[in-house]
Every structure is written in C-alpha cells, then in structure tokens.
Amino acid sequence: MIVELGAFALILALMLSAVQVAASAGGRIRGEASLRGAGEGASLGAFLCTAFAFGALMYAFVTSDFSVANVAENSHTEKPMLYKVAAVWGSHEGSMMLWNLALTGFGAAVAIFGRGLPHGLKSLTVASQGALQLLFIGYTVLASNPFVRLTQVPVEGNSLNPVLQDPLLAIHPPFLYVGYVGFSVVFSFAIAALIEGRVDAAWARWVRPWTLAAWSLLTVGITLGSFWAYYELGWGGWWFWDPVENASFMPWLAGTALLHSAIVTEKRGALGGWTVFLALTAFGFSMLGGFLVRSGVLTSVHAFAVDPKRGVLLLIILGVAAGSGFGLFAWRAPKLAPGGVFSPVSREGTLVLNNLFLAACAATVCLGTLYPLIREALTGEPISVGPPYFLLTFGPLMAACMLLVPLGPLLPWKRADLLTALKRLWPAAAVGVAAALYGLFLIAPGKVGAAFALFLGGWLVVGGLIELAQRAKVGSLSPGMSLRRLAGLPRGAWGMTLAHIGLGVFVLGAGVENAAKIEAAAIMQTGQQLKVGAYTLTMQGVDVLEGPNYTAERAKLSVAGPGVRDMTITPERRTYPASRQTTSQVALERRGVSDLYVVLGEARNGAWTVRAFWNPWARLIFLGPFLMALGGVISLSDRRLRLGVAMRRTAPMAAEPAE
Amino acid sequence: MRARLLAAAFAALVVCTGAGSPTDALPDAQQEARARSMFRQVRCLVCQNESIDDSEAPLAGDLRKIVRQEVAAGKSDEEIKRFLTDRYGEFVLLKPSFKLGNAILWVTPFAIVGLGAAGLLLVGRRRREETAPLDAEEQKKLDALSGETR
Amino acid sequence: MSGTLIFWVAAAALTVGLGGLLFAFSALAAGKALSAGPEDPSMAVYRRQLEELDELANRGLLPEAEQRAARAEAGRRLISAADRRATPETAGGKVTKVALLAGGVAAAAGAVALYLTLGSPGAADQPFKTRVKGWMSSDLEFLPPQELAAVLRQVVARRPQDIQGLTYLGKAEIAAGESANAARTFGHARRLEPNNLELVALEAQALLTESEDKVTPEAEAALKRVLALSPQDPMARYYLAKAAVDAGRAEEGVKGWRALADELPVGDERRLQLEQQIARASGKTSLAETVAKSDAPAQQAFIKAMVSRLAGRLKEKPDDPEGWARLIRAYGVLGDKEEQQRALATAREVYAQRPAVMLEIEKEATSAPQ
After folding, report:
1. In Å, what is the CA distance from A31 to each residue of A25, A231, A372?
2. From the candidate CATH numbers 1.25.40.10, 3.90.226.10, 3.40.50.1100, 3.30.1380.10, the one assigned to the domain spanning C125-207+216-224
3. Which ipTM value was assigned to this complex?
4. Most C CBs within 10 Å, among A2, A10, A14, A15, to test the C interface
5. To 10 degrees, what angle do helices C269-283 and C250-263 make?
6. Does residue A626 surpass a pLDDT of 90?
7. Do B134 and C321 touch (CB under 8 A)?
8. Candidates C55, C70, C108; nearest CB to A413
C-alpha cells in the first residue's frame, strides 16, 4: 500500500505543480495575495508529495519489494543496505525522482524563505519553477514511472553494476543532482525578472545565495565523482573529459561565471542582461547534462539507461524549457535598462574578463562534447574529441583566467591602478616562479606545462594570502590589530579568498601529479618485489575472501620506503557472481598529500599482475575543490546574504564590502 | 557478440593491466616513453572514450603492439598517426586533426575570447563618462529616504 | 477493511490535507496583504549598500571622489526604487476563493483519474521477508527451486555451519539455474569440511556448469581437489584432460582420455564420444577443415548447404556480427576467396556506421578456426 500511495503522491505532485503555476501566475496578474499564497502552498505541497513518493520508493528498495519493476530491475537481496538505498537513484526512473525532489524542494524553499522578495517577482519565480516541475514530473509519471508493478513477481532482483557499489558513488549523485537542479531556481528568477522587465542590483542580490548554494553542491558532487573515478576505475586517472563528466562541468563553469557576474550586477548595477543570460545558461547546461547522461546519447559507463524514446522526450523537454527561456530573453532583454559604466582596469573589469574566459571555457567543453555527435549525425563519419583537444583549447583559456584571479580582489571598484595592484602581488609572482623553477629542474625536468601549472598554483595560493593580508593591513597595523581585523572580516570575504586559494591548491595538485607520477608494474610471485618511486613492495601472497555478495582475491603486499616500516597493503579483485563481473579494489595508501596506489590484476600460473603508482600531491586535486565548496558555504552563511531575514543594521566592525 | 563487445569495454574499465603490462614494454626507455605518449592520443575503438593507454580490451592491446612496433621501426608520430587513420578512420585519434572540416572545433574557443574582447573594447571606449554627483534635489530625496530607517 | 479501501482512505486523507495546506497558505497571505506596507523590498538592499559605502569611507578605505560617485549610483537606485513603490496587493475576494476551490477539486479529480489509468489501486506491498515467510509456511516439496533456494538461504544465514543445509541450498541453486551462487555455497561448505568428497565434487560441477563446461582456473583447482580425494574419479579425470587439451598440451590430455576410454566397455556411448574427441585432439585440426580437405563430395555438399543457409539467414537478418564472422570464416575454409570477399564487402556495408563492430568481425573471421 505504501508503494501505491507513493505512486498516487507523485501524480498529486504533478497536479499541484499545475495549481502552483496557475495560482502564482494568476496572483501576479490580478495582484491578489490569496492566489499568490495558494501558489506557494501548492509549491510546498508538491514538495511534500514528491518527498513522500521518494520515501515510498526507498521503502520498496529497502524491503526488496520486487513487485515494483524498478526495484526488481535495480536491486538484489544480497546487496548491502547502503547500496539498496543508493539503488533508488541508480536507475533512470529513480534519478528522475531525485531530480524532481530537488526541483520541488527548491521551489518550496523559494516559497517559504523568499519573504523579503517583491511579491510579483516571487510569484513569477514560483510559477516558473512550477512549470519546470510540470515538465519533469510529467515526464516521470508518464514515461519513466518508478512505481510500475509486476504481475509476475520475480524471486530475485537484477543487481546494480558492482563498479557502482561504492560508498562514494552512492552519495555523489545526490550532491550532483541537487547542484544541477539548484540552478533551476536561478533560471526561474531570471524568467521572472525578464517578465517583470527589471534586472537590477537588488535582483542580483536575491539571486546570489541560490547560485552559491547550487554551485557549492555541484562542486562537491563533481569532486566526489572525480575521486570515485580515481580510486575505483583502477588506473589512477581522475578526470577523463568523458562526456558524462563534461555534462556536469558545463553547468559548473556557467555557474562560476554567474557567481562573478552577479557580483558586478549587485555592486554596480551593470551587466544585468549578461547575468540573466548566464542564469538561463547554467540551468540550460544542467538540463543538457541530464539529457546527455540519461538519454543514452553517449553510451558510457554512467549512462545506464539506453532508451531512445525517452531520449527524444527529454530532448523535447530541454527544447521547451531552454527554448522558452532564451526566447523570452531575446524578446525582453533589449528592453532592460542598461546600467553602469566602468573602466577596463577595475574590479568589475577583471570580473568581466573572467566571465569572458569562463564563457569561452564552457562553450569549449560544450562544443567538444557535442561536436562528435553533431558531426556523426551530419556526415556519418565518427570522430573522437578527447583529452588532447581539451588540453589545447580549454587549457590555455583557463590558465589565462586563473592569472586574473588574485588581481581582481586587489583592484577597487570603478577605477583602479593596475601598477599598484601588481606591485602588491610581487610575492605571489616570486613564489610562483620559484615553484615553477623547482618543478622544471627537480620534480619533472623539461615539462613546461607542469612548471606553468606550478607557477599558477603558487600565484593563486599566495595571491589569496596577500589579499587577506591587505584586508587585515598586515604590516601597517600592529599584529594584534591585524588579527582583530581578520577575525572581523565578513564571511563573504573569507569565502571568496578560501575559494581562490582552493583553486590554487587544486592546480598545484594537478600539476605535480601530472608531471611526476610514477608507474610500475610486474607479474609477481610470493616473495618478489616491485619498486615504485621510493617505495618497494613485496608480495606476501593472495587470500580468497567471501564478501556479502562477492568473492575477493586479496593480495598482501608489504611496503618499505621513506617513513614506512611494517606496513601491509591489501589490494583486492572482487568477483560478483550475481552479475558475473569483476572489479578491482585499489589499495590507496596516503602519505601526506601523496598517494601510493596499488592495483591487483589477473592471476596467471600462481603469479599476479600488480600495478603500482606513486601519485605525488594527488590529494590536493580533491582537497582544492572541497576548499572551494567550503568557501561557497562560508559565503552563504554571511548574514548579509541571508534571504528573508530582515537585515539587522549596525554592525560597524564586521561590515566591509567584500566581494 | 554485441554483449561481448560491451563486456570487453567494461572489463577494460574495471580490470587494470593495460599499457603498463611489464612484459610488452620496449627495451629502449626513450622509445617506450614516446610509445606511451602516443597511446594517450589513440582511442580504444571498442571502449567508451578511453585511450589505448588506459584500456585492457584485446583490441587496445593489438593497437599498442602496432604503435610500439612502429615506434621501434623509427617512424615519426605523424607517420604512425597516418597509418592508424588510414586503417581505422579519424575516429581512432582522440585529438581531432587540424583540418578545415574541424575548423569550428579549433577556432571557436579562441574566437569567443577574441570577439568578446573586441566588443568590450568598443563598448568601453564609447562609455567613458563619469558618474555625475547627486544634485541637490536628488540629495534631498535621498536624505528623506535614508531618514526613514535612520 | 480491505487493502483497497484502506488505500483510498489514506489517499483521500493525503489529498484533503494538501488542500488544507493550500488554503491555509492562501488565507495567511491574504491576511498579511492587508497589513503589509507598500515599500518596495529592493529599497532595503539599496539602503544597505549606502551604509556599506559610508562605512568604507569612514575607515578611510575609499577616496572621497570615488565614494561620492558610488554613493550617487546607489542613491539613484534607492530613489528610483522609491519612485516605483509597488501598488499594494489586494487580499483577493470571493471569486478567487471559488476559483481556488474549483481548481483544487479539479486537480484532485485529475490526480485520481490519472492514477486509475497508471497505478494499481490497492495493490499490496510485497517485502521480500514477507514473501519468504509465505514460502516457508507452504509445502517445501512443491516449491519451485528459486523460491526454495531463497528459503534455504534464510535458514543457512542463521546456521552458517550447517553442512546439510548448505548442500540443500547449493542443490536448489543448481536447479534454479544459479550455478555461480551454487559454486559459492558448495565452496563455503567445502571449506568447512575439506574432506567431504560429495561437496568437493558438487563444487566442481557447479563451477563447470557456470563456465559452460570450460575448465577455468577455479574449476581446475576444484577438480584437482576431487582427484586428491578420489584418484579414479572419471569426471575429474575427463575435465582435467580437457583442460590440458585446451591449454595446448594435447599429448597429456589425450593420454588422460585414452586411459579413461580404456576403462569403459567397448560399445559404450561415452567411449565412442571419447574416441571421437581423442581423434580430433590428436589430429589437431578442426572438423570443418577435415571435411573441407576430404574429397568426399557428400561432405563438401553438406558443408556448402550449411554455409548457404547461413548466408540466406544473414540476408534476411543482417544485424548478426557473429553470423558474419562465421560466414566469412567458412568461405575461407572452403577456399572460396571470391565469396569470402563478397561477404566481407556486404558486412562492411552493413556496419559502415559501426567500425568497432566491423573490426571485431574481421578479427573473429581471421582468427584460427576451431
């Protein structure tokens, strides 16, 4: 009965979305509070219904109710509980449910927390969100319903991919989806602003927290996914420019650009049209990503659902939503009041340049992802666009963008003196050059790209620190005073600096890992040794173990090297009988920020292939983005950005215009 | 067979010998390094978006053997690439070639930046006027409005 | 109360509750609309900006000229926002209430209608545990093997050391076609009782079933365990010899088979089959090649008929990579180069868009015939 109530609740959510659109739009047109309120109530109701339906589906998965087709298809009684839960969003239908849950959740959040918004803007935002809900919940109910029941109930379910049986993979989709869908609110705000014909500084202020929230979640989601690929796929790579990864990267790039352009709009009242365009684009890319991954257009590991009918439907939804957004933009944007004047050398100038580069980067990733599909469709000749392409196009654009990062916060608004700012940044440049030389001569001789990455990393990290020091007036004030100033800095300032430093940390990690990675492999019998970098592995033997739903060969290797005495690592090879697949469980031994990464391969005549990597500074690759996301969260907690809360006045010490 | 192709592609993802297999490496370390850098530019045809450096599919192994042979025979990177594209089409290269047909792909990223920068310069030159200070009437209105909260 | 009735009552409660929520929000907003002031909310944002600018200037961080210009910008925003003071919302009258009620009822009716076409009203949940309980209390003898295996799995989970339970479970799993699970079950039992010949043999059989008679390394290990306990075991000897032949050690394998065949009575069907396999293994050539090489026209005709049947089938259903590979290879065996090229060309046409598949076909077709 719970399952059927879930099915009913999902349909109820669809109907409530329709009420949400009609009541909210009606409230705006007639200027009536009771209608607007009804729309907000419907929005909350739609969320509650979707949450109930989601819970019902989860209940079916947890209890292994194979009378539900989706459960029978994607679960198995032998699966550990965590993966039964994660299987809820492992399938096409379930992932649409997660998407709907986030969509309605954000709609309800605007309805409830958007108390400080003008009524018209709020009504239209809620209405637009409702229209998106109609599209996506409608699709789920009619074409991808997870509550379909079976008359012939199978005894056992068809298990999920064992590669996907991993705690990280279980939790990364929720982050990713909530991040993706977070941009729907920004999209709806943009639609509302276009209809109202008002894109001003206040609008940018209202949009910014939603952007920050979505961006932070998306950052975490992408990073978790990347870390999963790093240790699960078993060859030590962490970013493959796989279309599925690109699908999540495009909205991230657009979101990052939006985050920065919204600041210009908020502080200077300029770039309103561009900010609206980015707001539409960010969610457009989210939907494109959802379409690419879920339609089976690119068959890749992540695209479990290969079903062209649904692909076409998703494409239509994408066309309707993005098409109406951009159509509205083309119609209304010329009527928006132009605002603001600015000089190229100023904070807003650097932010505009940053947007230019980020937009070009997003377009490049989009082009590189779609070009093979389009070209194959047109000419029939397939081509590949792989990592080398992105390295040559995206690489230099992103590098140029990063050069600007420490400069921006040091320049004042309106009109600035470039020379003064550059003079302040000389320690960053010096550290950067030193890092580059260190890399060029000691870590990875002759690798210019890596040396440049090290320069960029040093430039970004030290540049961020200089910016903090300048805010705290280190040097011109007593240390105690400076410390007090630091503590009094608004959280927005801390968040920004942390995010910029995080970017530097990431670049350092990626540069060193790429340049100085060491790889070794051997076919090892018990007692044989393998040297990788400064470490020596000695094979101690391989045991067979029984897991909950797999059988594992577990190798024991002792490790000797700097700072390591009696250490044993245990890479595994797991065989899942229910799906007849084999996965490798990497032994990941962290030494500082570097990783010793050991993979057990096939057995042959009493010997095992062992591959070992020394991945120097690899952990920084994942630490950096987490710092960025943390920066986003800290900015979000800045009370100046809090929504709906009446702004408390008088906070003389803390208030400094930061961003 | 289709299922087997898929299985092969999948095995490539989860199993992990591939290019690093110790038995196949060329004796000359410099040649081996060149071969490895070539591997990263060649797609494993039966896999999803993987280079033959990463893949364990049998076909990737064959391609690695071919590339190693060609490298050992002293062929240049260009020659090896031509050899591969003649046999398997452009699909085999992870880096699309710099030819007219792919112009959109290679030019667009930089064209966006170039055009954008040019546009900004134009707009920037046109709008250089200063913000006028508030006149007396505006100041009066503002004082009244600020006063509402002060 | 029947399940269906309970379901409808719950669904109705849910719907009514949500309707209540809708009207509560509506009434709340209407109540506030009467008391709310007309100030545009953006004014608060701009006032805040002005304050920030003043603070910055007070701390000497903003030159006076810049502060004046920035203040002018923010100030004008405040003034224009004040000019735009929004017309206040009305609470909404009776018409609105009626329209809302109608909309709510229509939405509920729509939900019920849509659910009736898509859902299975009142269908009960079927948690796995409940189902297993049901099977357990039914007559186990008439339970289909898969269900029986599920029940036994529960039993074994409670008594993991119970050899008899494990054996039943493994046998049920074999009967249910879950040979991989069976191999695991028997393996588990065998580790508990390493000298139990029945278990060891069952494990080997399950592994062989799982691999479709191919002697995998796991199966080979299991067979050796059988042999260690029962040196004359015919199954173990047969498959170990097969493993040797498959691994290219034909001589060793043939020796094993020969010994086995000699123990069987003449005229036993198994012996005949063994002899055939011995002949093939020691000849080292495949049956197809033998036939092609022989001059016997009847055999040639037989094979040609087979090939043309395959060609005909492929013409009707061209998307069969394995079929194409076999056809191309068969022409090769028959020595018909012309037909082989033609088949290759047709296959290339069929797979023009899928070079990866074509590549696999070519590889398959040119690999050594079995």
Report:
1. 10, 56, 50
2. 1.25.40.10
3. 0.87
4. A15
5. 160
6. yes
7. no
8. C70
